[in-house]
């Protein structure tokens, strides 16, 4: 598979793309529109059987892309039959011509797959402000629909799908699990793309999950809200937020499990756990493919007033350019961690702050510990997997977030993204 | 003068340090404590005559440095006789030993200059979390006090002062003006240091101004609040905020001008204008010395609900790593400007947004203009002085902020600051 990225594969990439299982009823097809990239797939069509529900989240940007606005109209009803994604052009700030592109794409999908346009989710990623041409999309749609209808997409199809939605990604991202709901076996599979502009609130990232579980429209919405907070809203590459981001899960119901209404129903515990695992796995892969990333930075915060507060503080640390460059340089500069906590806006007296680098407590009680072993901390920072843990009080709130180091590679990629 | 920085001089540096006038009664002396740097001055003592008032602001970090906490106790009274600054060690997260350092420094200054310790402002910049040693400071204090007492410091002394407080700065920063209050000639001179962690809310930057104007303690506080918002709170290098930042103005009253109580008194107009000019000049010098900076980025926002809102939106643009890398690459990617506006949290429909690059209107009415000349926009981005102007509505709020491009140089400096 040809990746769009001209940049070297992230050293944090998993060895290989996992085997994603076919989900009964989920058709997967990819194609090349040529609208921006040459010689690679840039379109993904997924099709779903009647009765499929959808839940998820879209960017909170006040200038969302046209496809975001389109898909937001579908989410409240919670029903979908198809998803069309294109990579290379985000269809943002494109005015009425951009809306026309979205309408034509949805119409082409509806016609080719035999559903209504208001059952077609749309998603786009890429450059802002250029009106995309629907012609090339319409031209290939019959072929895509035919390929998707040929049967549920298995490991190969999922890998091609992950490749088609990639932009500056240096590796393709997927995760899957088998679990159960009230004794019935169900499967979840998902793909994602980063990177760049990846920040909480769904910044430039796309994630699409499918499951054969039967999940009502309200339940799938609640499930994805919870999963998003723990995963895609807990990563940051550069603090920027995209106009296009989206994470969706489609549930076909083919597994025939018991219908459950309530998120807290104990019969959902295994499914929730599996869903969180997949979403966090995908989110960490996105952070690990942050532009120019050479190290994964995991920040845990405990003792905050609430989980939400803990997440905000953790993200201040994980987003700080000075923390991220220190990680890049393998320089265990814990003062920059304290600086980032200080700017979080919370009233955290230095005395209550405990900072751990790796497993070593570095600072506590208002200052550095006398037996602080800087060489050990620097050795930890020199590794691929950097862990910072901060206790900010004795509150019940805790969170874990993921980011990456800030390197010359980030500059090289972003100072020259369009050229 | 030996600069601390081992990095090349910013291409945005002014040709030379300006001639800063002696301010009657203001003694200036520098010295070398050797506490971190070898072979350069790292201490600045300024002394002021009886009756001197002081006003200014300190970092809003919840983990402020010991000297910040010290100086915050002095500001409400608005009276000061001396200022001691040390560079290289920020005295942050240093616990009781750090407090002892501050007390010993203030005591040494008080004893050597003949004032009270609660009239001594303290300021430190540098590494966090290492307890500084007061011994070397005490050792040189008598010499510093003697030098400061020799007479008001003129251009040479100001330049040495600016050099002594520098850390990663690649050029020293100063500005001055002559103006009048109700017909009496008064002078203002000021020095500053950046860079790195420079963000609004007084992030790692120091600025010290002196004037021979007579300004009451309330008036100088109000004057500096206004000047800070227009200058030091309107710049950003990396969005990080320091634990140590401070901007102070000392007014000796030697000029003997009319006492004025009210900021809005028309007889203060010329002074305010001159003060704003100096503060903005220093702030822009700090932005121009952003770590690795090769271009100054000026962002203007108009049409916001208030000036404060306009500043927040402008800073979102000026702080965005994706905007800053686009500036670095000379790539007039206006979509990233729209993205940054979108993440500001304000409800700004794309239709009302107008984006200018240089003097060219690029996008308006919800999309790019048909006659957009990308080559001209890129030529503007390729220059040293990049200007982005955004209209976000028809509100009365406007602001102008300054930042710089994000380059490999930023990474190189910060991935290796302590080594």
UniProtKB/TrEMBL annotation, chains A, B:
Q: Which UniProt keywords apply?
A: Acyltransferase, Amino-acid biosynthesis, Arginine biosynthesis, Autocatalytic cleavage, Cytoplasm, Multifunctional enzyme, Transferase
Q: Which SUPFAM superfamilies match?
A: DmpA/ArgJ-like (SSF56266)
What is the protein's species of origin? Marinibaculum pumilum
Where found? Cytoplasm
**Under which name does UniProt file this protein?**
Arginine biosynthesis bifunctional protein ArgJ
Under the heading HAMAP family, the entry gives:
ArgJ (MF_01106)
EC number(s) given by UniProt = 2.3.1.35, 2.3.1.1
Which family is this sequence assigned to? Belongs to the ArgJ family.
Catalytic residues? Answer: 204
InterPro entries linked:
Arg_biosynth_ArgJ, ArgJ-like_dom_sf, ArgJ_beta_C
Q: Which reaction does it catalyse?
A: L-glutamate + acetyl-CoA = N-acetyl-L-glutamate + CoA + H(+); N(2)-acetyl-L-ornithine + L-glutamate = N-acetyl-L-glutamate + L-ornithine
